[in-house]
Amino acid sequence: MGNANLNISVIEKRMLSQTEAASYTGLPVKHFKASCPVQPLEIRPGARAWDKRDLDRWIDEMKEGAEMTTQDAILGKL
């Protein structure tokens, strides 16, 4: 029996289509279009793409806002 080597290289995409960006954020496309403030880049005429780093930053900002709301709610109950 012979030996076989399989070399697989996976390159993670940074720029996402609208469908991919919505899926990445866990939102249906309809909700993503209505709520996401991240502006896409026009990679070439008619081709828009969302940067994963910008999406991550938006999600992190929402998390920070939620933490502050929770802290304010706790302090308000004291």
Summarize the structure.
With 78 residues, the chain is α+β, with helices and mostly antiparallel strands. The chain has helices spanning 18-25, 29-35, 52-77; strands at 15-16, 41-44, 47-51.
Task: State mean pLDDT (0 to 100 scale).
Answer: 87
What's the helix-strand series? EHHEEH
Classify the helix fraction into a percent range.
Answer: 40-55%
Shape: elongated
Strand content is 5-15%
Residue stretches low in confidence (pLDDT < 50, at least 5 long) are none
Q: Class by helix and strand content? A: alpha+beta
What Rg is obtained from the alpha carbons, in whole angstroms? 19 Å
How far the N terminus sits from the C terminus, by CA atoms, comes to: 73 Å
User: What is the count of helical runs?
Assistant: 3
What count of domains describes the coordinates?
A: 1
Tally the beta strands.
3
Instruction: Give, in spatial order, the strands making up the sheet with the most strands.
Output: 1-3-2
* Major sheet summary line: 3 strands, antiparallel
* Oligomeric state of the chains present here: single chain
Structure, explained:
This is Helix-turn-helix domain-containing protein. The chain has 78 residues and is of the alpha+beta class. It has one domain (15-77). Helix content is 53%, strand content 14%. A 3-stranded antiparallel sheet has the order 1-3-2. The radius of gyration is 19 Å and the shape is elongated.
